Amino acid sequence: MLLEGIHHITAITADAPGNVEFYTGVLGLRMVKQTVNQDDPTVYHLFYGDDDGSPGMDLTFFEYPGAARGRPGAGMVHRIVWRVGSAAALQFWNERLEQHGVSVEFDGESLVFADPEGLEHELVPAAVSDAPLQATSPEVPAEYALQGFDGVRAYSTDPTASAGLLLDGLGFETSDGRTWEVRGERRGSFYAYDNAPPEAVASQGAGTVHHVAFASSIEDHERWRTARGGGGRAHNAGDRPLLLSLGLLPRAQRRAVRARDDRSRLRRRRGRRAPGRAAVAARRASSRCASAWRPRSRLCPIHATSRPRRRPLDAWP
Length: 317
Hints:
By secondary structure, the chain is α+β, with helices and mostly antiparallel strands. The chain has 6 helices and 14 strands. It folds into 2 domains: 265 residues, 2,3-Dihydroxybiphenyl 1,2-Dioxygenase, domain 1; 39 residues, no CATH class. Helix content is 22%, strand content 26%. The strands form 2 sheets. It has an 8-stranded mixed β-sheet, with helices on one face.
């Protein structure tokens, strides 16, 4: 029972049009689809990846218009690490990002930059034999394109606290107790810890990672859900083909997920929704439909009523 590296990474954006322009127009990723958050249909969900929408290169964003800028702190992922094909690719991206006004840190071996909302990325030449995952872009030559996730880096004040979960619960391996790698039959990736800056107070918001999901075969799902090694707690993700590792989420998010699950069980016992929740959801849905951009369909995906079609998705950069 092995995890096949990172399946997808989900972050938060407050500006969907600007987000699309950066990740498709500047980084050359393909916009795979646009849908809604399965746990909250009032929130739109953007998916970027390679030409096939493959696990291992699936970067997604929840859109919360007007959300305040977040700040990664202890217990939060602060950097997404991507593979590229060569050192020449690093030079290409150094020049391309600078041309688009993006500040970069380039030391010849890796390149670090941030998106317009502060989400940090790092490019490194691939050092593994995993098949490259690439998106076709007219502005990015194939030999320089991003090739999928290499891993993520998170802040921590005590990396040893996660050792039991990563080693015994999820099957990761480490040589130094700070950088952990998991590898299946086809792919692998790492989860690394950096010391949390004393001034970095964790704050979830725009430009921060919401969660990291690791790939699992369908056959192994039930065994992962019942596994309790290392003190982790399984979170039922329905029929979605991935494993959400609740133990890798920031503590505040773990509390929120567990509280939501507890409320769901209570509603099922009562046979009805919590008082007032439907009215709140309806008000949020109405405000969402007034936004200036929305998907290809003329029907609102929240409550299926006709609405004007404004700037179409395929007209974006």
